[in-house]
Write a structure and sequence with these properties.
This protein is mostly beta strands. It contains one helix and 16 strands.
């Protein structure tokens, strides 16, 4: 009984340490033209060397009381030792659902999305914004909504003790990280040309 108790106690300590090692969750309000239209949250958990990040975006735009745009994007990523080993992305947009998956393979990373299968280098990473190490020169990037490779120009500059990364090309984005590398801000242009900004909730 004593040995079982020690084993159980040791397992509990390991689980507690794993939970403590996971980054803190992130919560943003999504603003369109200055008005709140949704939320973006990221939750983390870590166990046995695998970091899992669950990102959820919910946006609903109304006009005269009617919903004219509905967007729900759920992405689950698995990272081990700085490498993406698994990803599942499910996007529901105005009644249309698309799914993308990524799995690590011996030769790199295999994406399967609406446009078919794409093979990428092992160092490939998704544009899910929370991970600052993703947005640096030399990292092959892909859009997790479509399962396709993207190659934006990255303009990286210091900003208020942190880092600002501007992506030029495609939809474009302006991403902010604090001095610890935590994601703290985001701005882009919506499909209709409206200004979209994230504020920490």
């Amino acid at each position: 009984m004593r040995r079982r108790g020690l084993l159980a106690g040791g397992a509990a300590m390991l689980l507690a340490e794993a939970a403590a090692a996971a980054p803190a969750g992130l919560d943003f309000r999504v603003l369109r033209g200055g008005s709140p239209v949704g939320t973006h949250s990221v939750r983390f958990r870590e166990a046995a060397g695998l970091l899992e990040a669950l990102s959820e975006v919910r946006i609903e735009v109304k006009l005269m009381g009617f919903t004219v745009f509905r967007y729900h994007h759920l992405t689950t990523e698995g990272w081990r030792g700085g490498r993406l080993v698994a990803l599942t992305s499910r996007l529901a947009k105005n009644g249309t659902t698309t799914v993308c998956e990524a799995r690590a393979a011996e030769a790199g990373l295999v994406l399967r999305g609406p446009e078919g299968e794409v093979r990428m280098p092992a160092a490939a990473a998704p544009l899910t914004w929370w991970r600052q190490a993703t947005l640096r020169p030399g990292v092959p990037l892909f859009d997790p909504r479509k399962g396709i490779a993207v190659d934006p120009e990255l303009r990286i500059t210091p900003a208020g003790g942190g880092t600002r990364v501007v992506l030029v090309g495609g939809e474009g984005a302006d991403v902010l990280y604090d001095g610890a590398g935590t994601w703290v801000g985001f701005a882009t242009t919506g499909e209709d040309g409206s200004a979209v900004r994230y504020d920490r909730a």
